[in-house]
Amino acid sequence: MRRRIASKKRPKRKSDRWLVYCLCRGEMGFFLKRFPWTLCALLCLACAACHAELAPMPAVTDPFQRRGFNWGHLRLHPTVSTDFTLTDNSLRAENDTKTDVLMDSTAGMEMLFRPAEYISTQLTYEIGWHDYTRDTAKDFLSHKGIADVRMKNVFVRGLELSVFDTYQQTGNTGALENNLISFQRFASNVASIKAHYDFNRFSISGKYSHARIDYFSRVNSPFDYSAHSGDMEGAYQFIPTRLVLFGSYNITRVVRDSGIENFDTHTILAGARGTYGKLAFSLGSGYSRAMLLSGQDTEEGPSVISRITYAPHDRLLFSLDASRRFAASAQVGISQETDVKLAAAVRLTARGKIIADYTRNQSRRLEGADQVSFAYNCIFEYTLLRVATASASFSRSEREVSSGAGAFVINEGRIGFRLAW
């Protein structure tokens, strides 16, 4: 009995050279019977390779996440939204305030396309109609389009190319925007191309951007301008996946159509970005200098670009954004912009969350009145269905000026409904 049991023991496997020999001789039946799990593993690897080559769209696992409409490598996300905003100062006046209800109706489409593993394309377009129901201000139409194309491992491994363009046409600006003329129709376009290369722990990137502001009115056409910008950045992973040290240099030239007070800016930054536990940070500081091309005046000072996020719990998120830079003012000259935003998000349930933030924008101009705009905002969002979201918010915006007119106080309450597939 012992001999029979011993004779039924499974013989030992032979070497890998013998496996190749069996396959080459066509003895697949014997191979399937002898090594079934090995063949299954090879088939799984082959399927994974095929999927990596075809680069299908990633699956959606969150029950409340947008799923869209999928056709192979193409995914579409249509959106429709309607907002009603009650404002006590629709014209942003200092004394003669007027109450109105602004109805914003928008429809948009987002397209995600991945024809290959290393190529991704994102196209977004949104059209909106903004109606002041009491006609205290002029109704206007808005358009917004975004194109983003990214290609990885171009010619060599580690080289990534990105092409980005955003276009916006509207008849008004936000209450916190200090460097654009309110209640005037204009179009803005920002196009950029960027190359990024990674080699071991080192990385280097270069970027060129072109921005254009174009007012439709002849009265404001002298304030149109173009901005050409070039960026260079070098980085080193001091602690891989946790701490990156970087340094950057930026040069920007602003050219107005009127030819008055064109200027250059030069900015040098150094800093670090990374994560520490539940804290994520990107801190950069340096020095910036703005010079008129006529050589009449020069402005310089410290420059900062920083962002900090902290998530102590999966239901809590805090963030801080701060920046200081030189930019083109609303009409002529140079403006030193100092912006700070502090936000907190609390997820009450799986469907509802509250977001509160404080924003402060300061514009110190070489010519004209200085402006300080700040706002308090609180939003409650609730997901009704996977594609439907309702929201309610209250905000208070204020602006102070050093001289002349332009100061205002606005209190607004808003309710909104959004469908997003």
Written account of the structure:
It contains 4 helices and 19 strands. The protein has 2 domains: 14-52, no CATH class; 70-420, Porin, CATH 2.40.160. The chain has an 18-stranded antiparallel β-barrel. The longest helix has 19 residues, at 36-54. By secondary structure, it is mostly beta strands. A hairpin with a 4-residue loop joins strand 17 (371-383) and strand 18 (388-401). Helices cover 10% and strands 60% of the residues. The relative contact order is 0.10. The chain has helices at 2-7, 16-25, 28-34, 36-54, and strands at 69-71, 74-87, 100-116, 119-132, 140-151, 159-170, 186-199, 202-215, 225-239, 243-256, 263-276, 279-292, 298-313, 316-328, 334-347, 352-365, 371-383, 388-401, 408-420.
